[in-house]
Amino acid sequence: MAIPSIDEITHSAKQTFARFPAAVVAGIISCITCILLSESSRNENLWLRWVFLTCLIAIPLFTATTLYCERSDVTSKVKIRAQSSGYAFLIFYFSWLFSGEYLWKTPILDHSSTVESYRFLHFLLAAHLLASFVAFIGLNLKNAFWQLNRIFFLRFALATLYAVVLYAGLAAALGLSDYLLGPDLINYRFYSYLFYILTFIFHPWFFLAGIPPRAAELDGDRKYPRGLYNFTRFVLVPLVTVYLIILYLYIFKILLTAQIPRGAIGYLVSGVSIVGTLTILLLFPYGSDENRNKIRTSIRVFFYAILPLMGLLFFSLYLRISEYGFTMNRYTLLVLGAWLTLTALYFLFHKSKSIQFIPVSLFIIVTLTAFGPWSGYSTALRSQKARLRTILTRNNILQEGLIHKTEEEISHEDLREISGLFTYLVTTHGRSAISEWFQGEVKLPPKLSSSRGLIGYASYVDARKIVEAMGLVYYNRYSRDPSRKRFSFHIMRNTHQNDAITVKGYDYLISFHCYTRKVASEGLHIEYKKNNTTLTVQEASSKEPLLTIDISEYARELIKKYGLSVSQTNMSEESLQFQIEQNNVIGELTFESMYGEVKNDHPLLTSCKGHILLKTKATSNQDPS
Fold this sequence. Notes:
alpha+beta; five-stranded antiparallel sheet; four-stranded antiparallel sheet; 11 strands
């Protein structure tokens, strides 16, 4: 393959710009705004951030409108309407960001609001989905649709590879220039500028250059890359199969043990199902060949296989939602599960199957759930606000729709729930979500200039101030319950002292900790069983344990002697030292640290560490001479 000349590259770039002027310009503006934003502080030039987000959506959106306008059956008036609709949406989106209730003062790129970040991703996904099928609306061109999206897939991968290699090479060149030609010749910001240029200008421009005009004419193209087929069949299919087997084994485990599904199972099920659906998309043309019966059978088996997994997904979501209410993540998983179920039923039972159903149906769902009282944002807000309202009302804090201070004692669990829910609502939906409750004796405290809905420390500070204004104690998710009885014993060591252990007169020195399993050393086997806090020492040649120690008994003795919540660094070595005599051995047990809590008058260890000095009685009775 001949290397293209500069003229050929320039000509191709001009042609691409002529076809996709709005998309290319949107990429250039995205690059410029990123450079400008990198030169300003977080709270300056916030309008540039909205321009950046709008342009990111504009790249796939204007790609979609161009592909639609290139259809032969589209008139000039329709083309004008299509382009105008794209600009109208972007103006609406930018204006909506600008006039947001609290977002206009908040840098969204710093995750100012989970809602707005989600909604941006919502629109970005919708724009990409639109580009995948808009050229075939009303047309039954299955092969052309697959060929165009194959080109999208491979071209995106190629553009990414080129951009990564170019960045690595040019960044190395900048570093070499700085090293050879003089220190501080290259500003460190040049590396980020280079990244922005390759990401927002080179990558989309190179990607668009490979998209053929008049996508409908691809219907006669029967090219099926062997490499893509092999990658799908020998990489994706085995991976999906392995994960499906693991998930089915997990289902059997749930049925046998009657355990509650883990919270993260929904993400795993949906992830495997999405990758499997992508695999089906890549294999679909091969399944239409009469000689590819195995592939067509595999497609049906996959969709049959994911139906029980969808049952697991819905059951897991039901448990979480019934206990903790809706969040946007749970809502997204619920909608995604419903779409995957619908897709499976379509491919299993619909007579005339079309892979266009996948992006079209997903686009419709994504668009419908972006706004309205049925959207994930509104549903999550109503659900979590209702949970908080119930807890506040139960504790007589919320009366007649207004927050009042209370003198009643509130349980630690309720305080944790109140703190967590206020943090979620302020972080995700803004202070306006709960402002109606603070119109009486308790007012919302002034919000920090740096904490307007920001996720992280600033949001935590804002939520904490609101909870404390109500006269309550704020507990974050990591706060410990003060009612729990904890103990903590730790040897105080002087770093200037010699910490060597005297072993004179003993046969063995055995170190142990809570994570010791079976360790063989000097003819001894050492094992710690955490479930019953038992440490056993056994000679390799003997079936009976040489020494059996129940560490919880020593914990009980220490608690009785020193009490609970002892400072971790005020214990002497002698205070954590015990003499032991058992079977045919005597020795000395020293704990270096011990942590845990008391539950039902029984000490439960979370961590322990120490050493044992042992000698057999036969050895101790020998004549020293």
